[in-house]
Amino acid sequence: MSKKIAIPTNGELLDAHFGRAAGFTVFEIEGKEAKFVELLSATGLQHQHEGLASMFKRNGVEVLVCGGIGGGMINGLKSIGLEVVTGASGIVAEVAKTYASGNLVSTASVCQDHDHGHDHGQCSH
Known about the structure:
It contains three helices and six strands, in the order E-E-E-E-H-E-H-E-H. The protein has 125 residues and is α/β, with parallel strands linked by helices. It has a single domain (3-100), classed as Dinitrogenase iron-molybdenum cofactor biosynthesis domain (Nucleotidyltransferase, domain 5, 2-Layer Sandwich), CATH 3.30.420. It is globular, with a radius of gyration of 13 Å.
């Protein structure tokens, strides 16, 4: 059975801050293989929990694989049935392969103070 994952993307790298990502790379996970599906633009949706969640649901995404993410966003995504895996980093295609192989373990890291509209340079892990 296959599933779709989305990874916040900055060029070829995982964007360490979920909420400010300009786009998300979507992969289809089939067995232990990760196949590129599409790049979703998040333009205008940065830090908009409901807008991002709706975009993922419309596109059949079931799992979000990310680095840092705020607790409010995690709760919003989980409330609509999406799985959230945190603590990932590196080249997006490699992160997807690691997830597909079953070797990516969520660190449960949550970024602090991301609901206040200020600089989001640091996350507590």
